[in-house]
Amino acid sequence: MGRYLGQRLFQGIIVVFGVTVLVFVITRLVGDPVNFILPLSASEEQRVRLRADLGFDESILRQFIDFIAGAIRLDFGDSTLFRNQDAFDTVMNFLPKTLQLVAGGMAIALVVSIPLGALAATRPGTMLDKVLITVSLAGLATPQFFLAQLLLFFTSVRFQIVQFGDGPWTHLIVPSIAMALPAIGRLTMVVRSAMIDELNSQYVKAAKAKGVARRRVVLVHAWRNASIPFVTLFGWETIRALAGFTLVIEAVFDWPGLGDLAITAIKERDFFLIQAIVFVVAIMVVVINIGIDVVYKLIDPRVKLS
Amino acid sequence: MTNDPTSSWTPVDANTSTQHERDDATHAEQAQEGRPYEVRIATKGLFGELISDRTGFIAAVFLVVVLVIAFAAPWIAPYGPVEGNPSTARISPIWDGGTWAHVFGTDAQGYDVLSRLMWGSRTTLLIGVVVVLVAGIFGVVVGLISGYRGGRTDRWLMRWVDMQVAFPGLLIALIMIAVIGASIKSLIFVLAFNAWMVFARMTRGVVLSAKENPYVEAAEIVGCRPRRVMFLHILPNLTSSLATLAVLEFARIILAEATLSFLGLGLQFPDVSLGLMASAGREAFFSLPRLAVIPGVFLTLIVLAVNFLSSWLRVATDPVEREKRHATSAKGITDKDAAKRARQAKRAARLNEATS
Q1: Does the N-terminal or the C-terminal CB of chain A have fewer CB atoms within 10 Å?
Q2: Does B166 touch chain A (CB under 8 A)?
Q3: How confident is the model over B207-251, as pLDDT tens digits?
Q4: CB contacts, 8 Å: A157 with chain B
Q5: Greatest C-alpha distance within chain B
């Protein structure tokens, strides 16, 4: 297992490296970053000075080596958006808010999708099953920002269930639900189909035949096997939330997290900050991927990691 | 004797005919054995299936209507996408005391919502189709090369795919658009850049198994160039799965376009897409919800219809899925099910007859 994890870690480092290099290439090679940072009216002298300050006057290879050397020491340079603040520190300041949101959303998805999926799987073809499938499909076909806006509209304007600025925890609820919705849709369907497969298997029939209580058959026998595909997809959903959906949800709810920071950094062309954000997100993605494998092994002893 | 595969074939007597006649006859026979019967039976089954699958049928009809509207927008839209001025702003829709001049009312800038819906679906569908084409072609070519060549080429190409798959594309897409500038062209490029990997992976998988077929070996032995083997002999195996995947990807891409537009890094004024409309209503969401709700629901319906269509396509073209579908429907055997299965058995028998 140790050797396997080492291998995965190595692959993960390649992913982080690849993504950071990709961003470096996009931001440095496509145009002169100084033109993006300074206003059009800036004098040539100012441009030259800034270029020298930021190290853009060196050869691209030299810049690249400096960049990699900096990245290893977690030094991405100073943010141009937040004057004179270290880009990496800025990311770290915004990260907790996003982690709260993702953790909240994923917790809701976990708690809701498993019972719903199991319920549908034990009653295939019934009204409940059909309603769940239809709702999931419709939810997944809706643009996420649209769903989030509808949720915001109904909870805060139409029915005023949640008042904004209520407290540290209540304001987390609605964005978390918005974050959880697409994950709930997909995960419920996964639990459903995995459970149906397991419930039709020989060992479940055997368990039923020898008189094991139905509840135990579903919860212990079938779920343990059905949870294997679930774990993979749950990990994927977490990655999607962390590196994608959080941008949308934070924009809709004006949530001051990493996603919001990323959008601002991209729009303001703060390349040092963008690089730090992508680096941190890539590391989290890799960590989650390795986490999935570990959980996998814990659930299913048959899995041989190689 | 003609090679036209649709003409009826009459056996040629070995004793009375010359060699070239016999050759022609063999050709015609081979041609008949392969495509036409199969295609005819497959398409016949396809449409029969489509009509019997009610959601699939409704979805297909809906999509055809949307396609026609989108295609004909320049001729049938009552106004241009950005035609109007503040004096025509915020006119109520027809169900809220408006007039037929503006069926869905107008938005805060005075643009007619119905016309914008038509123009918007034009852009949305265009982007979806072009991105699927670009990403699909690139992905399939990479997958073909990767799977057919194998070895080092395969390892490097798949490593590239893995790396792009491991990191979700939205963030990268946003950065790319910020650098190269937002326009329909750059949007298509960026979306395709983040969508080709699925095609490559799937193609590679199919190629790996198709490569083992004797006919591929035969083609290689008679001296077909790799390109010919890849595109002529292996590629047709992909038809079914590729069609389903392309349809599903289309749905995913129009949602991605909507998201980019919402974040302000997609289409820019004066271009209009359904996603942009659904998000442009953001400021007005709390005063005039219909501005976001109408395009949002319309976009959702399109995606939903595309999904239903793809599930029909999968059932209709993939024998394994077919079996699953009909096995579950035949659980409680009714007369209807029995009749259906009898029909299917007949169809299968006919297919056997035609191909043997």
Answers
A1: C
A2: yes
A3: 888 888 888 889 889 988 888 888 888 888 888 788 888 988 999
A4: 286
A5: 88
For the stretch B156-209, pLDDT in tens is 898 888 888 877 788 889 888 888 888 889 999 999 999 999 999 999 988 888
Q: B178, A266: Cβ pair inside 8 Å?
A: yes
Q: Do B171 and A286 touch (CB under 8 A)?
A: no
CA end-to-end distance (rounded Å), chain B: 22
Q: Return the structure tokens found at A69.
A: 């050397």
Residue B166: in which H helix or E strand, if any?
Answer: helix B151-166
A234: Cα separation from own chain's centroid:
11
CB contact under 8 A, A149 and B299: no
Write down the H helix ranges in chain A: 2-29, 33-37, 44-54, 60-72, 87-122, 127-141, 144-152, 170-199, 202-209, 214-216, 223-240, 246-253, 258-268, 271-299
CB-based contact (8 Å) between A85 and chain B? no
Distance from CA of A183 to the nearest CA of B (A): 15
Start-to-end CA distance of chain A, whole Å, equals 8
Side chain identity at A154, as an amino acid letter?
Answer: F
What's the rounded Cα separation, in Å, for the pair B141 and B200?
Answer: 7
- Model pTM? 0.80
Closest CA to A108 of A116, A96, A97: A116
What interface predicted TM-score (ipTM) does this complex get? 0.85
Q: In the structure encoding, which two tokens stand for residue B84, read together? A: 């109007």
